[in-house]
Amino acid sequence: MSFASVSRCLQQTSRTFARTKPPRSVVLPTRYFSSSARRWLEIQRPIAQPTHLLSLPSKEYLEEEEIDAKVLAPEDVSLTITDRAAEQLRAIAKREGNPDAALRIAVDSGGCHGYQYKMELAKSRAGDDYQFTHPTIQPSNILVDAISLGLLNGSTVDFATELIGSSFRVTENPHAKGSGCGCGVSWELKT
User: Model-level pTM greater than 0.85?
Assistant: First the structure.
């Protein structure tokens, strides 16, 4: 096929499409042009569900290890997980061949705003961990130590995929001031 024949074919196709109009029943996609990241997030909010609390820290373990943390009552503990984060955790557990595999989330001091999230994969639960799971997508375990839960209680755990990579993220933290650092890891405590 020569260049001339390809060119003629493209010209003919473009003339054909220029003459045709879309049927009235077709809904054309809406485009959102906004410079506000918050507005875009509101439009793209993922489906999230409150987690089930599977286990609490052991008071005996906290005393034995001299960990100064109060064990919250089950009705005072709240953590939400998006469906896509739960699906990713289930895939990790399947790949590892361990239904107890979990995402461990901790809060450390540091970062450019004062606090930062530390996330790692864990193979089992420690004595000072709260264990959460998605209500329908299982296994999708999340572990949070007793001290960190005071700073994470009420937050949402999500899994984001971007051009530069994929990662778990903590969003909608009621204890965080503003949106934190652009990296999504560092944040400032509300006073």
Answer: no
